[in-house]
Amino acid sequence: xxxxxxGLGLGASLIMAIGAQNAHVLRMGIKRQHVALTVAACxxxxxxxxxxxxxxxxxxxxxxxxxxxxxxxxxxxxxxxYGLRSWRSMLTPKSLAVDAATPAPDARQALASVVALSLLxxxxxxxxxxxxxxxxxxxxxxxxxxxxxxxxxxxxxxxxALGFGxxxxxxxxxxxxxxxxxEGLTGAVMLTLAAGLVMS
Length: 200
Prior knowledge:
The chain has one domain (2-199). The protein starts with a helix and ends with a helix. The longest helix is centred in the first third of the chain and has 28 residues, at 35-62. Helix 1 (2-15) runs parallel beside helix 7 (141-166), helix 3 (35-62) packs antiparallel against helix 7 and helix 4 (65-90) crosses helix 6 (122-137). By secondary structure, it is mostly helical. Helix content is 80%, strand content 0%.
């Protein structure tokens, strides 16, 4: 039971930080576009990566300076790109409009977007595979399942609350000024995270 609680706590502390994946789920929730699909995809991807990390991939990456450096610098580059992209959107009012005239992506496009933001973001591997995987892998065999289940539960609860909770904020964030604030904050956080990875 203690390993489950530890996994839940560490998983929650990592997943609740604002990142590219969370920003995307929030955006889809506010726009009420394929929310269930986006949330489900994030949960499935997280479950897979957590299991992969605890099974040994996290220790393997952490034990290889080359792989660890690739994940760190790749993560920094991805976050830098995403942060600058958010700031560019902030300065383009047209891209912030949320109305019926804006074509919504179809299910395939929505799934492709969330998969790309999740699996092509090296920062996700640092948190989920390396950190969670290394901590979970340090537990005795009998407790690894409990730790993994706790971390997976954190992912399930967080993405569900974030995605479906955001739908209630659609009215508030239907205004361009509110979107400017979200994009500006997202960009600042992404660039801060990128700087942290570079200096670590």
